[in-house]
């Protein structure tokens, strides 16, 4: 095998049978992918999937999360719903083995995966959270109809320097009878002259006073988690949780580096998007996340080792850096169909990919990690990270994918583009992707093809990768 092959859901049925005949061993949540359509996941019928057993395991882990959460409740484990911080509180929750944490925010993909069959957005509309808000408003519908994730035993949400959308949406929950433990994340600022400062992950810096403030906030969350679990959440337990989180992040870093820098690309954009998402809360199963990442790494290593395909300059896809997750995951397929490939991402949770510090007390390390969230600081910090990662992975073009209704997307894309283009002459495209993008597909296709053609044509002029001419 030299190049990864993408197949349809129907083709996966035959592929699955073939893998089974050849002795496929699966986790208990395994099975053919097409069975998820019976649960309402109709979008799967429109996607192209990587054909590896590793990808099968990844998709099955993703698509069985709700079952896993309900099973955890039946087994007597407590469910923690974590909102907005994307990557920090779950590290704390999974330090206690009778807690399971997940992000209700993840409901934002339900309208896409289930192709609007659940009317979650209509429920949000009826609660005054209309389409002027981002698709995370689907979370409200999922809380109200109770047909998706189990209602958590404890809800924890970060406030302060978070987007207006999430603030407004989450603030509706107490009105609806769902208690929330709020904790504050301040807007990360540059330290004043002479002010004690702390280095954060992601090459960021913050005043020491802000780190101490967040430590105090996280300590409140620590006590709530311990009360819920009925056991202490001490520094030893937190340190062990951080060690496991860093293991996940280290495997993901290896996977991203291997995939983003290899030619030809050994793993498609869609599977890589899902793999990156595992960092946030391990898809409610940390051990399986580690196993899935091991399988993906082994598959990528095997493909690279077996590869005898040598693309010419004209032959390999344009190397695209992608900003923001897409509301419709089908667009990740479209990028490849337009002649592009992913070589770097900033999906709003880069801080969940960076290793957590291990040379300071655990709560301080977690506070540093939470403050390193690119969405709680100035957009210039986010643009600088994007620029640095574009260079690291050798990207040829930047694609900024706006999220419909998202308050930060109104101007942020322009600002990021300005910063990047001030440093590098590189093609940049901004698009907007709704939850179901089929009606816009011709427009999106034309625009992405134009970006790809521009990036590739620069090779003819010797302006490849990150050359600045
Ligand atoms: S506006 Fe952006 S950051 Fe806020 S909830 Fe929506 S997608 Fe997340």
By CATH, the architecture of the domain at 69-237 is named 3-Layer(aba) Sandwich
- CATH fold type of the domain at 69-237: Rossmann fold
How many helices in DSSP terms?
Answer: 18
Query: What class do helices, strands and sheet pairing give?
Result: alpha/beta
Cα(first) to Cα(last) distance is: 37 Å
The coarse overall form would be globular
> For the report, how would you describe the main beta sheet?
4 strands, parallel
Strand order of the largest sheet: 4-3-5-6
Radius of gyration: 22 Å
SS elements, strand count: 12
| Unreliable stretches covering 5 or more consecutive residues | none
Write the element-wise H/E pattern from the N-terminal end onward.
Answer: EHHEHHEHEHHHEHEEEHHHHEHEHHEHEH
Tell me which ligands are bound. iron/sulfur cluster
How much beta, percentage-wise?
Answer: 5-15%
The CATH class label of the domain at 69-237 is Alpha Beta
Helix-residue proportion: 40-55%
- Average pLDDT across residues? 94
Structure keywords:
alpha/beta; binds iron/sulfur cluster; 12 strands; four-stranded parallel β-sheet; 18 helices; Rossmann fold; 469 residues
3D structure, described in words:
- There is one protein chain.
- The model has no long low-confidence stretch (mean pLDDT 94).
- This protein has a four-stranded parallel β-sheet with strand order 4-3-5-6. The protein has a four-stranded parallel β-sheet with strand order 10-9-11-12.
- 48% of the residues lie in helices and 12% in strands.
- The chain is an alpha/beta fold.
- It has a domain of 169 residues: 3-Layer(aba) Sandwich (Rossmann fold).
- Bound molecules: iron/sulfur cluster (SF4).
């Amino acid at each position: 095998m030299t190049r990864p092959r993408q197949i349809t859901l129907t083709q996966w049925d035959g592929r699955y049978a073939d893998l089974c005949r050849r002795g496929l061993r699966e986790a208990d949540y395994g099975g053919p992918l097409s069975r998820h359509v019976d649960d309402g996941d109709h979008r799967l019928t429109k996607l192209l999937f990587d054909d590896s057993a590793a990808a099968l395991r990844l998709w099955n882990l993703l698509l069985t999360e709700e079952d896993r959460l309900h099973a955890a409740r039946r087994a007597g484990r407590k469910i923690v719903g974590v909102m907005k911080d994307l990557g920090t509180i779950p590290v704390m929750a999974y330090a206690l083995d009778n807690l399971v944490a997940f992000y209700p925010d993840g409901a934002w993909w339900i309208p896409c995966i289930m192709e609007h069959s659940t009317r979650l957005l209509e429920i949000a509309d009826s609660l005054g959270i209309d389409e002027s808000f981002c698709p995370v408003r689907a979370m409200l519908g999922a809380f109200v109809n109770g047909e998706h994730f189990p209602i958590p035993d404890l809800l924890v949400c970060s406030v302060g320097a978070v987007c207006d959308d999430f603030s407004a949406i989450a603030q509706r929950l107490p009105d609806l009878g769902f208690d929330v433990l709020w904790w504050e994340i301040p807007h990360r600022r540059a330290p004043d002259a002479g002010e004690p400062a702390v280095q954060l992950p992601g090459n960021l810096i913050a005043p020491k006073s802000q780190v101490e403030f967040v430590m105090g906030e996280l300590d409140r969350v620590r006590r709530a988690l311990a009360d819920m679990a009925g056991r202490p959440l001490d520094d030893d337990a937190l340190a062990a949780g951080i060690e496991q989180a860093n293991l996940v992040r280290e495997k993901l870093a290896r996977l991203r580096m291997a995939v983003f820098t290899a030619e030809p690309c050994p793993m498609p954009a869609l599977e890589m998007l899902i793999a990156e998402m595992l960092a946030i809360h391990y898809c409610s199963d940390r051990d399986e996340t580690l196993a899935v990442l091991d399988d993906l790494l082994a598959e990528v290593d095997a493909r690279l080792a077996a590869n005898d395909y040598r693309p010419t300059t004209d032959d390999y896809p344009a190397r695209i850096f992608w900003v923001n997750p897409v509301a419709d995951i089908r667009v990740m397929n479209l990028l490849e169909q337009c002649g592009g490939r992913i070589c770097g991402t900033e999906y709003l949770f880069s801080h969940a990919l960076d290793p957590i510090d291990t040379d300071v007390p655990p709560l301080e390390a977690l506070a540093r990690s939470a403050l390193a969230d690119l969405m709680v600081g100035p957009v210039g910090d986010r643009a600088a990270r994007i620029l640095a990662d574009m260079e690291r992975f050798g990207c040829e073009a930047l694609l900024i994918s706006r999220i419909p209704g998202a308050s930060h997307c109104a101007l942020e894309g322009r600002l990021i583009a300005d910063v990047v283009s001030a440093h590098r002459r590189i093609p940049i495209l901004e698009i907007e992707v709704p939850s179901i993008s089929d009606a816009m597909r011709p427009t999106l296709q034309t625009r992405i093809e134009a970006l790809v053609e521009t990036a590739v044509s620069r090779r003819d002029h010797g302006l490849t990768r990150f050359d600045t001419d």
